[in-house]
Specification:
The structure holds 2 protein chains of 2 kinds.
Chain A lengths: L1 E3 L27 E4 L4 E5 L4 E5 L5 E4 L1 H11 L4 H11 L6 H17 L3 E4 L5 H4 L14 E5 L3 H5 L23
Parallel strand pairs in A: 1-7
Antiparallel strand pairs in A: 2-6, 3-4, 4-5, 5-7
Helix pairs in contact in A: 2-3
Chain B lengths: L1 E7 L6 H9 L7 E6 L6 H6 L6 E4 L4 H11 L5 E6 L3 E2 L3 H11 L5 E10 L5 H5 L8 E2 L7 E3 L1 H6 L9 H11 L4 E13 L9 H30 L1
Parallel strand pairs in B: 1-2, 1-4, 2-3, 6-9
Antiparallel strand pairs in B: 4-8, 5-9, 6-7, 6-8
Helix pairs in contact in B: 7-8
The chains are: A alpha+beta, B alpha/beta.
């Protein structure tokens, strides 16, 4: 995984991922994940996926390989299955353990940026279908770019202050006493 | 000369407070204009109550960016300051922003800090569902905008028919190298009410993602252009 922090001004939150350390010793490669909505919104374009975390105001871009991982991961495909599938998709790459490290590093970033959460809804590659992204012929490490140049503005949107149900659903009424 | 542009859309509840906060400035702008984005309520009547001190222009609804552009076209100041009609300026806003550009003439834009407040007219059950962060925030929101008219020649217009018009413009301004400063003082009060919950609207979120995508594409092509000219 290659993390780019170009143009952005990420300060104290900056975390340089350590690609070689085990990300999360408890990570189970059969665990499923999903997009951390509604705090996180994203849209897949032809050449990248753009994600926005409304709780932090940061936004992200993933290149096509990263987008492929995002699409599978955010739809509940367990990492082990994703790695096996990507290895079959790029037979010339021939190094499944490197793919596993790439996905683990990416997942670790997704988790530290709170872009995903664990899910009980496991789905198979066959269920989620082919990624929308146009993949390159050769495998390359996924690139995640982070930006916070409009964080100040986006953080001021009061969506952040609303309970998860959010406006226009009013807060639950206080239970009546007696 | 400073022109204050108040954009309004069905703002009968809050417009008078907004206008008065402009009239109460320690540095009163030479021109005050209400740009009405197709209101159908008493917005026009309230604006006209102030007589010739407050100009009023109406156009068919075009969204906030379209209304701001109406304000830019219909005013002549070399400095522009915008106010969303539901927000409030504190009295020294224009004075301190104008002083900042006098002190540093290379500045194009000056933003203040702002503080948020829960609109006092909200029904208790609505107010209870909102949590208002009252800490001061650096504000690059439109109600804090103070800048040179010429900056629009460099950056281009605010686009109509979109809610993320100012995020889009702000990104373009940064890409264009516009010089900005944020003052430490809290000079704007931002009203929290259900109407400004834009990001809860799915279409608006979608729009933000498209605005961000367009900015990423422009920045890459700028970088690409710079690289190829280095080679050449």
């Amino acid at each position: 995984l290659y993390i780019e922090e170009t143009i952005s001004l990420i300060g104290d939150g900056a975390r340089k991922p350590d690609f070689h350390a085990a990300k999360d010793p408890a990570m189970n490669s059969n665990q499923s994940f999903e997009c951390n909505s509604p705090d996180v919104v994203f849209e897949s374009f032809d050449d990248e996926v753009v994600l926005l975390n409304l709780q932090t105001g940061r936004y992200y871009s993933l290149d096509p390989i990263g987008m492929m991982y995002w699409e599978y991961l955010s739809q509940g495909v367990p990492p082990a299955e994703i790695v096996a599938h990507v290895a079959r998709k790029f037979p010339a790459h021939g190094n499944a353990s490197e793919l596993k490290l790439d996905l683990e590093a990416l997942l670790s970033e997704f988790q530290s940026e709170q872009l995903v959460r664990t899910s009980v809804n496991s789905r198979s590659i066959a269920e989620v279908g082919e990624p929308k992204t146009k993949l390159p012929e050769k495998y390359a490490r996924p690139v995640l770019s982070k930006f916070d140049d409009v964080a100040e503005m986006l953080l001021l949107d009061p969506v952040h202050d609303v309970s998860e149900a959010g406006w226009p659903n009013p807060a639950p009424a206080e239970p009546k006493q007696g | 000369m400073i022109s204050a542009i108040i954009t309004a859309f069905n703002s009968e509840a809050y417009l008078a407070q907004g206008i008065e906060s402009v009239l109460n400035q320690t540095l009163v702008p030479a021109e005050i204009l209400v740009a009405d984005d197709g209101s159908t309520d008493a917005t026009a009547a309230i604006a006209k109550r102030y007589g010739p001190r407050v100009l009023y222009r109406w156009q068919e609804n075009q969204g906030p960016g379209g209304a701001r552009m109406l304000g830019i076209r219909e005013t002549s100041g070399d400095f522009l300051a915008f106010l969303d009609s539901d927000d409030i300026w504190l009295p020294r806003k224009l004075e301190l922003q104008y002083a900042a550009v006098q002190e540093e003439p290379s500045l194009d834009l000056v933003f203040p800090h702002l503080r948020q407040f829960l609109s006092p007219d909200l029904k208790p059950e609505v107010a209870a569902s909102l949590v208002c962060d009252e800490r001061p925030h650096a504000s690059s929101l439109i109600s804090g905008f103070f800048g040179r008219r010429s900056v629009f020649e460099r950056v281009g217009p605010l686009f109509k028919d979109m809610k993320a018009d100012f995020v889009d413009w702000y990104l373009r301004a940064r890409e264009a190298g516009v010089r900005m400063k944020t003052l430490d003082e809290v000079l704007v009060m931002r009203r929290i009410h259900p109407g400004n919950f834009t990001l809860l609207n799915k279409d608006v979120r979608h729009e933000y993602l498209h605005v961000l995508k367009a900015s990423l594409d422009r920045r890459r092509s700028q970088q690409g252009g710079a690289k190829s000219s280095e080679k050449g």
